[in-house]
Amino acid sequence: MGPIRVLIVDDQAAPREAMSAVVEVADGFQVVGAVASGEESVVAAHDLAPDLVLMDVNLPGIDGIEATRQIRSLPAAPVVLLLSTYDEEDFDINGCGAAAYVPKGSFGPVRLHSEWLAALTGDRTAR
After folding, report:
1. pTM (global) more than 0.85
2. Which CATH superfamily is domain 4-126 in?
């Protein structure tokens, strides 16, 4: 089995670069694309067929929650992790299909691995 293919979605360059750096140092993960909007994320998820999408919640155009809904409706839909600097309680993420919400401040290689494992197994205690 090859590396876990990751698409990064954030409207700001610095967070995209930070998430890319985390993915690149995490064993078994590979960045396959990075985009800046919800609309671009839906197209990229279709075209690149990632295994995992790291999705910022606050995006121009369609937000990360709506983009997640659209991505999760694709055939062979990838796992989507929502990320934000805001508290999870600030958003209604129910029903969008995201595997989890991760505060950007706690995102790192260990958290990436644990969230991936939890998404695959359905075991939220694996986090």
Report:
1. yes
2. Response regulator (3.40.50.2300)
